[in-house]
Amino acid sequence: MREVSRDRIKAFITLLPSVVLIGVFVYGFIGNTVWISMTDWRGGAALSENPVKNFIGMQNYVELFSGFLDGRFRQDLVNAVYYSVLLLVGAVGIGMFIAILLDRKPRGEDFLRTVFLYPMSLSFIVTGTIWRWLLAPQGGVNLLPTYLGGKALDFQWLSSMKTVLLFDWQNLFPILLYLAAFVLILLGLGKLRRDPSRAFKHYLVPGVVLGAVVWLFGDLLPRALFMEEEHGFNLATLGIILATIWQYSGYTMALYLAGFNGISQDLMDAARLDGASDFDYYMHVAIPMLKPITISAVIILSHISLKMFDLIFAMTGPDNAATGHPALDMYLTTFRANDFAKGAAIAIVLFLVAGTFIIPYLVTSYRQRRNAR
Amino acid sequence: MKNSLAKLLFVVAAIAVFGAFPVQAASNLSGDLEIFSWWAGDEGPALEALIDIYKKENPNVKVINATVTGGSGVNAKSVLKTRMLGGNPPDSFQVHAGQELIGTWVKADRMEDLTPIFKANGWMEAFPKGLIKLIGTDKGIWSVPVNIHRSNVMWFIPANLKKWGIEAPRTWGEFFAVADGLKAKGIVPLALAQNWTANHLWESVALASLGADKWDALWAGDLAFDSPEGVKVWELFGKVLKYTNTDAPSLSWQQATDMVVDGRAAFNIMGDWAAGYMNTTKKLAPGTGFGWSASPDTTGAFMFLADSFCLPKGAPHRDNAVAWLEVLGSREGSDTFNPIKGSISARLDSDLSKYNAYGQSAATDFGKDHIVGSLAHGVTANEGFMNDFASVMEMFLKSKNAQAAAKAAQQIAVKNGIAK
Question: Which residue, A264, A269, B186, B291, has most beta carbons within 10 Å?
Fold first, then answer.
């Protein structure tokens, strides 16, 4: 008994410094940022030694989401969604594809693995500079077709002003609810085969009802903004997404390759004996087994996509609003416009978005660990 | 072991002795001097020339030249903020004279009043009265101007214009008349670069559309940004933009100037640091190799901006910094720096023979034109307005909606305390 309590004391003392440091430098500063975001710390005197800060509640947040002048933040938020989704699809898809090819043990596998992993070792600034040159309107990628005898492209990879998939920010609430209904129905269809009654009760029926209600009574929902404001997918972000996928697909490839190597050869032989083709083996055996790897790749990539800053800064500069990102907006608002309060509010919004990715992951992995015990 | 320790002690003692009694020199200042600026690359040699003068006068001071690159100081300003807030100010830093310094650092009470230095050196008479008013407030004078730049200048290559059979337009009407012909020949009429150069072009267009008096009224809060005149500025600007290159956001200002030099573009509106670039880097002779005129419809107005250095409170080597400021304000320093930088001296008694043809012409205009302040380079508006204006500009570049842009500009002017 005494052994145990002494052990505990030792453990406590060992952990204490890091608990204190994390408490102060992580949670303390998160708290401080929340506080700053609820003040009016901005303007000329903001940089004096003892600046005046008055509590103004949620006003900064209200302005960000519905103020006349903060359209840029809203566009950046929409951009961030597209950056995240396309980076995930691109990097996971391409990474998995390359991993499957390399798992077939072609000649020179070691060499190719290094080649594909290499972009990871570059910093975002270097990647950004290289790709800015490659994507220059009159050079690089746009000249590729001329080598095949075609005409040079004239797509403005980084400065296109075109926007597709436009939607009006006023209709934000109905759109979000439609999205939720769509996801519910999709999940329900996925579970239909295994557990039909549960799929209907928990996913399909609520999804359809939600969609129908929004369709019928959507006009009663409050407008998110007092004026029309269109946002959408800016084509200028394509160049940046391309560079990010280039940099990170090697990383997901390495994750999957390690996973594939960990699958025992017996399993593959067994699948073969049962008459599975290569495609069937990967589709129904190998990839489902690597679900934990897929999840961690998604978590890592999505939080990387929320921290995109240096790449955008290097490729299109701070003031190219079409390719903006909340992280960049936060920096400019805080350190260029001296609007510390609103900058802090943007930071907190980003923090909450990151939380929606990470907290479910932490909860499930905690549960799994407890169940395993 | 003992022997080597003795040797070491001897060496340490020797260093201490020689360090403590330096050779007698022009001044007895010693220690470090850290100067913070964004003058690297093409503008670096001009700063080096100033540092050389300083080193000659103060041989025992070690000068630390801390530069953070980026045109117009885009990156340097944020680095500076981090250092100032962290209690680690440089001894002296570069800043655009006017509201950029006053609206941020003077309001925050972090600068030292330089009036005593101005009085002791006789600078109250050496600099134009209008300029001193702009770099000061009722509480003092806050920076020493090193140079004067002109913002509203249009650059071209005379030989190219001759080849194309056109002349430099004096009004936007004349510009539009020749621009379509140039476009048909595959030449870009007006070269433009990334976002801040669009702001730069905007101020020249606005000055042309409003005239100097109304431009002043705009910043005094007497003319609204969304007044009919204000909307007209954006309309004209939108029309001008149609004649610029489509790849502008991916170019630096030097690359836009290169387009003119290479004959891919006809004109470029840029501050007169472009003269320094074409003269020093591109080896073109002013007047014959490259030509200039006031940007269309702004003849008789001189839109100025000035780089200056200042003295933050709590500078670690204050005496060295004061000596640095004295070099900057002196006639010798000013006339050494400006010919290399491609700007003109802020002093009234500068030696014009040291300047090239462009500098002489600019100095003459500075003496007789209506002087107005630049927006893009921090004279007329504080940093909050400038940051928000970049967003308004982006909005306009995308939507080309003059009404909306004028309205947004008025809103940010109210927010940042310029308009009422």
Answer: B291
